[in-house]
Design brief:
The complex is a heterodimer of chains A (about 100) and B (about 150). Chain A is about 35% helix and about 45% strand. Chain A has 2 helices and 5 strands; from the N terminus they run ββαβαββ. A 4-stranded mixed sheet of chain A has the order 1-4-5-2. In chain B, strands 1-3-2 form a 3-stranded antiparallel sheet. Chain B starts with a helix and ends with a strand. Classes of the chains: A alpha+beta (about 100), B alpha+beta (about 150).
Chain lengths: ~100, ~150
């Protein structure tokens, strides 16, 4: 599966469009990571626990999107976008969407 | 007397967080500047297409993210600033640091796959863990940079 966030897959021709595919995941903060982050928050700087948490969550959202595209019979996803929304206190939704296509 | 001691504790706490926060920020900037020089041969552009389009032989998405927060002292300062309005410099440098770090992480990933250029780079910024009307909420930002890394025919 090729994913790009430009309008085409370079060097390949788009043969078929399958429309929008998306993947999302909602994550709550971990109590342990939260505690460390709270301490780190006093002096500022990077909160590694959160960075890791979000990275992993985003990867999962991507995998879900790819799975959906595979079901449709696509072999590439173009114009991929990421979006993040804080939905409730301490939870965030990470979502990714793009256009599933078949390229040759 | 007790109040005086409390005040003293507070002042010491603020002073410590300020100095540690400043040291952290300076060393971070030094690290960013050194790494940026290292990645000069791998530019990231925000346009979707390049002139020599037929030279592209492979494309893959890359991304880099960072969660970053302010120190306690600067947060108080920013809170005071909000009353008067105007530039909040401490947040400006925070976001600047975050963005540059995110770009560097994205480029690191791109270099691992042997890319020559990153096309259509986008930023996504979100305030996570920020709860209004709660003093002890964790005010931090996540900055995500993503784009399409491409390999060019030599």
């Amino acid at each position: 599966m090729i994913t790009t966030n430009i309008d085409s897959v370079p060097g390949k021709r788009i043969a078929e469009h399958f429309g929008i595919v998306q993947g999302s995941t909602v994550r709550a903060r971990h109590v342990g990571a939260d505690f460390v982050a709270g301490l780190k928050n006093v002096v500022g700087g990077e909160l590694k626990g959160y960075t890791l948490l979000l990275e992993r969550a985003r990867k999962e959202a991507l995998e879900r999107m790819i799975a959906q595209a595979q079901q449709l019979g696509a072999n590439a996803i173009i114009n991929v976008r990421f979006a993040t929304a804080a939905i409730t206190q301490g939870a965030a939704e990470l979502m990714t969407y793009g256009t599933a296509v078949r390229v040759e | 007397m007790q109040q005086l001691i409390d005040l003293l504790y507070f002042v010491v706490f603020v002073a410590v967080t300020y100095s540690v926060g400043t040291i952290v920020e300076r060393s971070h900037y030094r690290k960013i500047e050194a790494e940026e020089k290292d990645y000069l041969n791998l530019p990231a552009v925000s346009s979707k297409e390049i002139e020599n389009k037929d030279q592209i032989i492979a494309a893959e998405m890359v991304s880099g993210s960072v969660v970053i927060s302010l120190d306690y002292f600067k947060r108080i300062l920013a809170g005071l600033r909000k009353i008067l309005g105007g530039r909040i410099k401490s947040y400006e440098t925070l976001l600047d640091r975050g963005r540059r770090e995110a770009i560097l992480r994205m480029k690191k990933q791109a270099r691992q796959i042997g890319a020559d250029l990153i096309l259509n780079m986008r930023f996504e910024t979100s305030a996570i863990g920020q709860v209004t009307q709660r003093k002890n909420s964790i005010g931090c930002f996540e900055v995500l940079a993503y784009g399409t890394a491409v390999k060019l025919r030599k």
